[in-house]
């Protein structure tokens, strides 16, 4: 019998920790969607670009701490350029046009990052311990624990930033109502640059964690696709939703792969998350934590 | 002053409702078709026919299909690749199980299979919309590709997973697939098929059902209030769209590449077709053709330009630069003309009507 409770919990915990990594990517989506209503498909590309920049700088001999700072600066510059070159000319266009534009951005920064730093697989080693730990019978990877801790810290910092600072309050005001925010004097364009920068920094953190785990390579851009079901499960507009959605997708996916996969020819990880999200959507069309959609004619 | 409707009197309702009410448009279409049927096969070589015109026609058909769903009915879909794969594998199973079936019937039936699958994956659209729906259609994309990859039944238990389309003939020894097929035959067959399908699509969008799609797109609640059933309108849009896309997938596998493999229909294919309809113009049949032409020609153009002006760039660099330029051009196009190439044509027609006067 291949089912046993310790094994079940091991898979569950492994899945939850993997889910944290999805949440890291999904967070960036939520931030941008809340503040500008743009469905930013480029988040995966930003993760790749951030990680490539960091690795590229480290390989040039820049000390790790300085490289992280420089990569952060690069993400801020990217945010500024995106706002200036893409968002501003496309203001007031329908959402699908902006969505397509972010796919364009994805293509551009994927190509740009790889032109700049090459397309080989780079290893990123920031000294995060990667040793198996045993809690009773349950095997847990220490790297995943670090990732979970990083995600926890990131969410806490973001929460403090949003709740306690002046800029955070402005961001929440913009998320609530663009026009009202503008009419009380909040500069929308500056806010967009800030929010894209914050999403860029989140992408950098995600890039560091994913890059250390899988190596920095083109496939990092594809994890954005894994973050999408997390998003619809949690709701596009909810930060806690992104976290809990990530945990659910991670755990559900791993459990399904291990316990249902063998009966279905395996590799059901590819689509299980989407199916799970779709089923949830049938019952709650705005996701688990999204704002209730009220429509008027 | 040449291009105008003034002076062309309609004496029947049928004439008034014709697709091309202006005489010059009818002449223009006739000239285009004449060029496509007579001049192109005489001039083009095999490279042009096989690598540019055939994929262009296949993509046009897929783009028309997606345009019906996204442009006319307003349901954003990222599952195009999955539905294309559906059509391709249905055609393969039909062609191998019933070798005597005529190729046109195979294509139409495989479109029907894709339509049924499309309706199934269209069901969530009754509850969710917008980007939530787009992500839900990704479920179709990943699930279908996984299914075709994993279950041997779909590729007749071929060990390699890559299977070639069986040779099929239109009539006599005019083969469309397999080693005996002539590129010109493929081209002419596709041209006829796609032209007829485009005519069908154009007429569908002009009749009652097409109007109900547009009403749903513009405001679904208001449409429901004036008596349009969202269930019928949305699911019929999914069915018709998937039918077109399925036939395009079958043509891709049989006529264009000659091999049936699930990997050819991955998520990038879906984005490619989506780009076509955005750049061509949402809610325009002409736009589907223009967008398909643009997206098919652009990479070929980008590949050849550095060689022509004497730059020598390493191959992998070119691939990355191509990505960059492609992305930048997409953004540029969206900024300059968010309504697509079809809109440019509409504007040009307006100008022509008034020419030589400014107003």
TrEMBL record, chain A:
Subcellular location per the Swiss-Prot or TrEMBL entry: Cell membrane
Predominant location of this chain?
A: membrane
Q: Which UniProt keywords apply?
A: Amino-acid transport, Cell membrane, Membrane, Transmembrane, Transmembrane helix, Transport
- Which Pfam families does the record match to this protein? BPD_transp_2 (PF02653)
Which BP terms from GO are recorded? amino acid transport
Transmembrane helix is among the record's keywords:
yes
Q: Which residues cross the membrane?
A: 12-33, 38-58, 64-82, 94-118, 138-162, 190-210, 230-251, 263-283
Q: Report membrane topology.
A: Multi-pass membrane protein
Q: Which GO terms describe its cellular component?
A: plasma membrane
**CDD domains assigned:** TM_PBP1_LivH_like
Query: Under the GO molecular function aspect, what terms does this record hold?
Result: transmembrane transporter activity
Its family? Belongs to the binding-protein-dependent transport system permease family. LivHM subfamily.
| The protein's name | ABC transporter permease
From TrEMBL, chain B:
Q: Does the keyword Transmembrane apply?
A: yes
UniProt source species: Oceanibaculum pacificum
Question: What is the protein name stated in its UniProt record?
Answer: ABC transporter permease
Entry's Gene Ontology molecular function annotations:
branched-chain amino acid transmembrane transporter activity
Pfam families for this protein: BPD_transp_2
GO cellular component terms listed in the entry, alphabetical order: plasma membrane
CDD domains on file? TM_PBP1_LivM_like
Q: How does it sit in the membrane?
A: Multi-pass membrane protein
Keyword terms of this UniProt record: Cell membrane, Membrane, Transmembrane, Transmembrane helix
- PANTHER family (alphabetical): ABC TRANSPORTER PERMEASE PROTEIN, HIGH-AFFINITY BRANCHED-CHAIN AMINO ACID TRANSPORT SYSTEM PERMEASE
Locate the transmembrane regions by residue number.
27-44, 50-69, 76-95, 101-123, 130-148, 187-204, 235-255, 275-301, 313-336
Instruction: From the Swiss-Prot or TrEMBL record, state where the protein is found.
Output: Cell membrane
């Amino acid at each position: 019998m291949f089912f046993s409770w310790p094994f079940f919990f091991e898979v569950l915990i492994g899945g939850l920790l993997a889910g944290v990594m999805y949440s890291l990517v999904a967070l960036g989506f939520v931030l941008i969607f809340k503040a500008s209503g743009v469905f930013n498909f480029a988040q995966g590309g930003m993760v790749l670009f951030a990680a490539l920049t960091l690795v590229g700088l480290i390989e040039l001999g820049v000390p790790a701490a300085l490289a992280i700072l420089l990569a952060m600066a690069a993400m801020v510059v990217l945010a500024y350029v995106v706002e200036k070159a893409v968002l501003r000319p496309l203001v007031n266009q329908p959402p699908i046009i902006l969505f397509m534009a972010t796919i364009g951005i994805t293509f551009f920064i994927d190509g740009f990052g790889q032109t700049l730093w090459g397309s080989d697989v780079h290893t990123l080693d920031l000294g995060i311990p990667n040793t198996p730990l045993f809690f009773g019978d349950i095997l847990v990877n220490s790297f995943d624990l670090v990732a979970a801790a990083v995600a926890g810290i990131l969410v806490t910092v973001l929460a403090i930033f949003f709740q306690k600072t002046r800029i955070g309050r402005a961001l929440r005001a913009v998320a609530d109502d663009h026009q009202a925010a503008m009419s009380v004097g909040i500069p929308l364009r500056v806010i967009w640059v800030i929010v894209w920068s914050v999403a860029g920094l989140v992408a950098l953190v995600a890039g560091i964690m994913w890059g250390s785990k899988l190596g920095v390579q083109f496939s990092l851009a594809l994890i954005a696709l894994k973050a999408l079901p997390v998003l619809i499960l949690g709701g596009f507009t909810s930060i806690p939703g992104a976290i809990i959605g990530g945990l659910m997708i991670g755990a559900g996916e791993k459990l399904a792969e291990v316990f249902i996969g063998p009966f279905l020819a395996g590799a059901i990880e590819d689509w299980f998350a989407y199916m799970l999200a779709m089923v949830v959507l049938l019952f709650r069309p705005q996701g688990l934590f999204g704002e209730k959609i009220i429509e008027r004619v | 002053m040449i291009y105008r409707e003034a002076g062309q009197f309609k004496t029947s309702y049928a004439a008034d409702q014709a697709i091309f009410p202006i005489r010059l448009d009818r002449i223009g279409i006739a000239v285009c078709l004449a060029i496509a049927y007579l001049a192109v096969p005489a001039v083009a070589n095999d490279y042009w026919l096989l690598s540019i015109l055939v994929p262009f026609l296949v993509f046009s058909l897929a783009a028309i299909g997606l345009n019906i769903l996204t442009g006319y009915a307003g349901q954003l879909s990222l599952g195009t690749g999955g539905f294309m794969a559906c059509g391709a594998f249905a055609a393969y199973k039909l062609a191998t199980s019933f070798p005597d079936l005529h190729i046109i019937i195979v294509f139409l039936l495989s479109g029907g299979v894709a339509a049924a699958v499309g309706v199934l994956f269209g069901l969530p659209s009754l509850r969710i919309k917008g980007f939530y729906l787009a992500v839900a259609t990704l479920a179709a994309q990943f699930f279908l590709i996984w299914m075709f990859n994993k279950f041997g039944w779909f590729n007749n238990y071929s060990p390699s997973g890559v299977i070639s389309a069986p040779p099929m003939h239109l009539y006599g020894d005019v083969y469309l697939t397999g080693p005996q097929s002539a590129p010109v035959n493929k081209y002419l067959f596709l041209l006829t098929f796609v032209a007829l399908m485009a005519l069908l699509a154009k007429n569908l969008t002009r009749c009652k059902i097409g109007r109900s799609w547009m009403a749903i797109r513009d405001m679904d609640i208001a449409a429901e209030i004036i008596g349009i059933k969202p269930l019928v309108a949305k699911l019929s849009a999914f069915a018709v769209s998937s039918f077109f896309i399925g036939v395009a997938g079958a043509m891709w596998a049989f006529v264009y590449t000659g091999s049936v493999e699930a990997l050819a229909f991955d998520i990038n294919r879906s984005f490619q077709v989506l780009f076509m309809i955005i750049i061509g113009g949402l809610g325009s049949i002409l736009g589907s053709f223009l967008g398909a032409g643009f997206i098919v020609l652009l990479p070929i153009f980008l590949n050849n330009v550095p060689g022509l002006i004497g730059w020598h760039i390493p191959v992998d660099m070119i691939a990355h630069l191509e990505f960059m330029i492609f992305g930048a051009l997409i953004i540029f196009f969206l900024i300059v003309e968010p309504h697509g190439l079809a809109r440019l044509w509409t504007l040009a027609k307006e100008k022509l009507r008034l020419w030589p006067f400014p107003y």
